[in-house]
Write a structure and sequence with these properties.
Layout (H helix, E strand, L loop, with lengths): L1 H10 L12 H6 L4 H19 L5 H16 L2 H13 L5 H9 L5 H19 L8 H12 L1 H6 L8 H8 L2 H19 L2 H24 L4 H23 L1
Helix pairs in contact: 3-4, 3-8, 4-7, 5-6, 5-7, 5-13, 7-13, 8-11, 8-12, 8-13, 11-12, 12-13
């Protein structure tokens, strides 16, 4: 439970007691609980949607769900997404891209990418019908497993950084077992849409990781966050036609 609590207090804004005297090893090994963190976030979003549907129109519910997820996560992964887009869309040299990604200032590319991502996500959330709400449980859980493809299968681009510890602590056995469990849960909740969203998300993130890693010589913590945000939208997009 301590590992789960470490992951929850770092990657969410859920008011929980912060564990004391966390070691570096404990922190980096808490990555194995990220899909469970996603499941908790998903259950909260599902409960919220169930409570709102009798009282509000779809557009309002979509906006509230989007805002609720941002509040639950503190936008921590969106920060990585914006930094990544600033760098990758700059069309500069690999060295300059890494410098731009490390810069905390928000550029035009990050702003445009953020608007596009949130607009698409809002549209998908607002289009969910009562029979489709189980996707809210699967979406954040699947995204927090899929991003680990980049963590475990590709090198880290920097000599140091928060993401480097996750890369070094990752284990294939834990990753594959977690994927098997998530695949079963996704199929149980969504039927055929679950495995399809699982497979397509994994393929797209693998291809993106390979392409970016070849360009930059590896991946970064910002890219890990970007993969989580992109995977949530991919999951919604791919599953949507099968849930209608």
């Amino acid at each position: 439970m301590r590992g789960l609590l470490i992951a929850l207090t770092f990657f969410t804004r859920i008011p929980l007691p912060v564990p004391q005297d966390i070691t570096t090893e404990e922190f980096t090994r808490s990555y194995r609980f990220y899909p469970l963190v996603g499941l908790i976030i998903g259950l909260l979003l599902w409960l919220l949607a169930k409570a709102l549907i009798p009282y509000f129109p779809p557009l309002v519910i979509g906006a509230i769900l989007l805002g609720a997820e941002l509040m639950l996560t503190g936008g921590i992964h969106l920060d990585g997404f914006m930094d990544s887009m600033d760098g990758l869309l700059s069309a500069r040299s690999p060295e300059r891209i890494l410098e731009i990604m490390k810069d905390s200032r928000v550029g035009a590319h990050a702003s445009m990418a953020l608007v596009g991502l949130l607009l698409l996500k809002f549209s998908l959330l607002a289009s969910l019908t009562p029979s489709m709400l189980s996707i809210l449980i699967v979406m954040p859980m699947l995204a927090r497993w899929v991003f680990q493809i980049g963590v475990i299968a590709f090198p880290y681009a920097r000599s140091q950084g928060l993401g480097k510890g996750f890369h070094e602590a990752s284990q294939w056995v834990t990753f594959l077992l977690g994927g098997a469990v998530i695949l079963v849960i996704s199929f149980y909740l969504l039927g055929l849409a679950g495995p399809v969203a699982f497979g397509v998300s994994a393929i797209i993130i693998t291809l993106m990781s390979s392409r970016i890693s070849a360009l930059l010589g590896g991946l970064t913590g910002d890219l890990y966050g970007a993969f989580i945000e992109l995977s949530e939208v991919i999951c919604l997009l791919v599953a949507f036609p099968f849930l209608r």
